[in-house]
Amino acid sequence: MLASNNDFRSAMRRFATGVTVITTRSADGAIAGFTANAFASVSAEPPMVLICVNRTASSHAALSANALFTVNILALEQRDIAERFAGGEPTQRFAGIAHAPGATGAPVLAGALAHFDCTVAEEYSAGTHTIFVANVVACDSREGDPLGYYDRTYRDFNIDL
Predict the structure, then answer these.
(1) Is pTM beyond 0.70 here?
(2) What are the tens digits of pLDDT across the range 45-54?
């Protein structure tokens, strides 16, 4: 027997995460992106990460077809970007948002704390999602405070214990 969907969602809300925007670019140059927190390091040698994407997400087809993406880790002051890429009209998400193409051509968002520019190595189906395991071809970072997410609310995790 599996846990109920409601119990599972309630328990997962207790896990604090960072906030990312996953971006991609298609062969015809169209760009797409969405807010996500299902991101993890897989390996340092070679550098690899994974993201989990719902197959009903508007960007899923582009990610799968183009086999490239950038994970943009958002800074505390980028909450408005997180909210914009979490909903609304997908074709309007980049309007007024400074970005430049990374090594793969996927957009790197200006001001992100870090970014990982990736090419997909493997795809795995898991329930309603696809797990994209990817090689990191380029990455960069800067100092700053991360935007956090906990219990369906954006948070400031800048607390030293």
Answers:
(1) yes
(2) 999 999 999 9
Cis amide linkage into residue 90, ω under 30° from 0: no
Percent of the chain with pLDDT over 90: 71
- Which amino acid is present at 67? A
Tokens linked to 126: 């898991």
Assigned token pair, 110: 């200006």
Q: Which string of DSSP letters, residue by residue, matches 113-134?
A: SEEEEEEEEEEEEETTEEEEEE
**Host H or E run for residue 17:** strand 17-18
Give the list of residues 6+ apart from residue 69 with CB closer than 8 angstroms, or none. Answer: 22, 23, 24, 51, 63, 104, 106, 118, 120, 132, 134
Copy the structure tokens of residue 140. Answer: 């960069």
From CA 132, how far away is CA 68, in angstroms rounded? 10
The arrangement of strands across the sheet holding 68-73 comes to 31-36, 20-25, 68-73, 114-126, 129-141, 47-54, 39-44
